[in-house]
Each structure stands twice: as C-alpha cells, then as structure tokens.
Amino acid sequence: MTAPIIRIDRLDKVFGTLKVLDGLSFDVMPGEKLALIGPSGSGKTTILRILMTLETISGGHIEVCGEQLYHMRRGDRELPADEAHLHHMRSHIGMVFQHFNLFPHKSVLDNITLAPVLTKGEPKAKAEARARELLEMVGLSDKAGAMPSQLSGGQKQRVAIARALALQPRIMLFDEVTSALDPELVEEVLLVMKRLAAETDMTMLLVTHEMGFAHEFADRVLFFDKGRIVEQGPPDQIFRNPTQERTQTFLRKIIAAGHRV
Amino acid sequence: MGDWSGYLALILQGALVTAQLTVMGSALALVAAFAAGLGRIAPLAPVRWLATVYIEFFRGTSIFVQLFWVYFVLPFAGISLSPLMAGVLALGLNVGAYAAEVVRGAILSVPKDQYEATIALNLTKLQRMRHVILPQALPLMLPTFGNNAIELLKATAVVSLISLTDMTFQAQVVRAQTGSTLIPFATILILYFAMAMIITTGVRALERRLTRGLDGVR
Ligand SMILES: Nc1ncnc2c1ncn2[C@@H]1O[C@H](COP(=O)(O)OP(=O)(O)OP(=O)(O)O)[C@@H](O)[C@H]1O
Ligand SMILES: [Mg+2]
C-alpha cells in the first residue's frame, strides 16, 4: 500500500468569526485526480490556498509528501513552520489561479523560466528549452516572445499552466481555472488539462463549477458544503447517484443553470 | 554697468552648485526613499517604527530648520560637514521622506495576485521584491519621483543660508553689484526652468523604457 501524498487531518480555518473549514479530514493518493465541488462559499478555494501556503490554518494538521506542512519537528517539540520550512514544502506544490496572475512585465518565456532559474538554479538555456517544450504542449509555441497583455484569456491561462509545470511539482492545484474565461476559450484550456491528467502521474486537485469536466477528469469527487465533506466517491456515483440530499439539490441547481453533467 | 559675461559666468558657477546639489541630493533622496519606504512595510516592527519616525520627522519640520541643524548643530556632536555636503544631506533626507511614501504606496498598489503568484512559484522574499514587485512598482513611482526631484531643485535655494554660492545666491550678488534685478533674475528663471525640463524629460524617457510591454495592463 502506498502512503497518501496529502493527509488533511481535522483542519480548521476561521476568518474572524466565520468558520470556513470545520474539522476537515481527507487523504489524497499519489497520482490521484481529485475534483472539489460545492456551493459558493463552501471553502473549496480556501483548501487550495491553504495547501499553497497562501493562508494560515486555525487548527489541525496537513501532511504533504510525508512531512508536516505547517509544523516542524524540533527534537520532540512541534513548532509552527518558519519561512524556510514553508519554502522547502512549497517545492512539492504548484498552483494555477482563476485570474492567471501572469507577470505583466515579463515575456511569456520569462514568465515560465523565472522560477526554475531563481529557485532551482537551473541554467537559463536549460530552463528555456524546457519552457519551449511546455509551450508546445499547451499549443503556444509561437507565443514565447509575446507579452501577457498580447494574449487572450485562454492563452494566458495556458501559459500559467506551463509556468506552474516548469517547476515540476508533484502536486498541482487548479482553482476554477476556466471561470474567468469567455465561453469559447474554455475548451482550449480544458483540453490541455485533460492531456495533462492523462499523460502525467502528477497529483491534481481541481476546484471547478464545470461538472462535465469534473466528471471526465477526476478519479474521485468531493462534494463540500459549509467547510465539510458531505459526500465523496467516483464521479459516476456522485453525478449519477448522489446519496445525500444536499448533493442532489446542488446538482439540480447546476443543471437548471444550464451546465451539462 | 559692468562686464555682463563676467556676471553670467558668476551665475553659471552658481548653476553648477545648484545642479550638484540637485543631482547628489536626488541620489541620496532615492536611497533614503527606498530604505524608508521598504522599512515602512518591513516584517520587523522596530524597522517600521524607525522608518516612520524618520518620515514623520522630516515631513513635519521645515527644510530651513533641518539645514540649520545639519550645518550648525551637528558639529557640536563632532560631525562637521562642508556646506555642500550639509546641503545634500538636508535636501536628500527631506525629499527622501516624501518619496518614501511614494515607494511604499507603489509597492502596496501592486495587485495581491502578483504577490501570491510569487509564493506559488516558491520565490524567496528577496526574489519576489526584486523580480516581480519592484519592476511593477517602479513605473508607478517615477512620475512622482520626477516631481520630487523638481521640488528638490527648487528647494536648493535655501542653501545660501549656510553660505553656499548657488544660483540664487549668485543672482543676488550680481543684482547687488549691478543694480539690475531684471537681468540676473530673468537669467536664473530660465536656468531653473531648463533644469526642471531636463528632469521632466529624463523621467519621461525612463518611464517609457520601464513600461514597454506593460501597455494594456493598467
Ligand atoms: N480573506 C478572507 N477573509 C474573510 N473571509 C474570507 C476570506 N477568504 C474567504 N473568506 C470566506 O470564506 C468562505 C469560503 O470561501 P472560499 O473562497 O473558500 O469558497 P469557495 O468554495 O471557493 O467559493 P466559490 O465557489 O464562490 O469560489 C466564504 O464565506 C468567504 O467569504
Ligand atoms: Mg473559490
């Protein structure tokens, strides 16, 4: 039996007086493709942001690649993680954002090579060669020299995916990566992600409102409500035969809103 | 009426002093602005306090008084400066305090998204600043920096207080010797304006260079 690559154990997250994650526990196996779905405000983004260390936690433990994410062992004492520990842990994880967050002052190629050169000390030439391979994979070979402002939303998002991949993380987080795109640009990004899911053994966590895509992409679907997992299982089970009332209501609403499942 | 070319030479000598003060003062102001501006948002509280005290002190007292202190009072603490150095120090620290707020504001106005992307890409704090935040903040600072430099240029005239023979001082000398007010003061009017234009043009050119490719972003 292989060990989980992510272990979330009784995780709490509070914003002021609002409890966003409430004793949340789940494991993710290496290579697993996970879809996180649920109503707005249920805490999906917060989970990804916590895994990317963009938020702090209020309680509980998270283990990533066999090490505590927010805690470090010093002798027999457990201390909150310091910046050096977080830096070490982040090397396992990459994230793609809803609004791409490309660096506007850098060319497409420089966006992709910046982190490998700076954080891994890769030679520029090697980083560029790899960046060009990644650009080819996302179908943007001809855009290496372009500035982000010259790209469409779908192109920007594909560059952002390539940028995150350049660091070769073992875990990739995708937070509603198509929801800021015009409808006609969604497909090109989903295609890239489908290929990625099929061709790599990376562990992927996907937050999405595209139920059809979640169905196709995921090995397992987690349905969240109010910071807790209401129901989880293989996509066929969650989308075809949800057992929980809240899951059924949620999916009905999504279908009524015109999304295919 | 005397020899006008001799008087003009006198004013030009003064112009050189004014230019020196402006260039060196601006250089110091720039350093002080970044030190204090970054200090204001530093994670360490004592660093923030220090930066705040500096900024509030130099913004809250007049350049006139600051210059007086630097030149006449510091010697009692064993620090004697030449008039030029005293002028540069007072002007640089004074304008630096204003520009520090510009640095801070520009850094804080870079969208949070950008900062989060640098964390997701695992850059160190220094790398985040140097490669992502500052390159985007700099173009926002430049126009105000240009104004600050012009403010500094105009403030240089106070140095006659500590017997520095800047452009305004020399114009007064010429006026005293010739009895003409119009000619020396028209001359320095044009010279001040020309220097301000050089600053404006230089800053614009720099701005154009720094924002290449950024069009359509903001
Ligand atoms: N920085 C913050 N400060 C205060 N409240 C926050 C903050 N970030 C998120 N929240 C709140 O936490 C709750 C969960 O937010 P989260 O973004 O994780 O939801 P979500 O499931 O991703 O929703 P959506 O589908 O709308 O993206 C929401 O009620 C949100 O308002
Ligand atoms: Mg969200």
What is this structure's SSE topology?
The complex is a heterodimer of chains A (261) and B (218).
Chain A: E1 6-15, E2 18-28, E3 33-37, H1 44-51, E4 59-64, E5 67-68, E6 71-74, E7 77-80, H2 83-90, E8 93-96, H3 108-120, H4 124-137, H5 153-165, E9 171-175, H6 183-199, E10 203-207, H7 211-217, E11 220-225, E12 228-233, H8 235-240, H9 245-256
Chain B: H1 4-40, H2 45-60, H3 63-73, H4 83-109, H5 112-120, H6 125-155, H7 167-178, H8 182-210
Helix pairs in contact in B: 1-2, 1-4, 1-6, 1-7, 1-8, 2-4, 3-4, 4-6, 6-8, 7-8
The structure holds adenosine-5'-triphosphate and magnesium ion (MG).
Report on the structure:
The complex is a heterodimer of chains A (261) and B (218). By secondary structure, chain A is of the alpha/beta class. Chain A has a domain at 100-168. Chain A is built from 9 helices and 12 strands. Chain A has a 6-stranded mixed sheet with strand order 8-9-10-3-11-12, sandwiched between helices. In chain A, strand 1 and strand 2 form a beta hairpin. The radius of gyration of chain A is 19 Å and the shape is globular. The model of chain A has no long low-confidence stretch (mean pLDDT 93). Chain B has 8 helices and no strands. With 218 residues, chain B is an all-alpha fold. Helix content of chain B is 79%, strand content 0%. Chain B has a single domain (4-211), classed as MetI-like (MetI-like fold, Orthogonal Bundle). Adenosine-5'-triphosphate binds next to strand 2 and helix 1 of chain A. The site of adenosine-5'-triphosphate has 11 residues of chain A, from strand 2 and helix 1. Chain B: It is a multi-pass membrane protein.
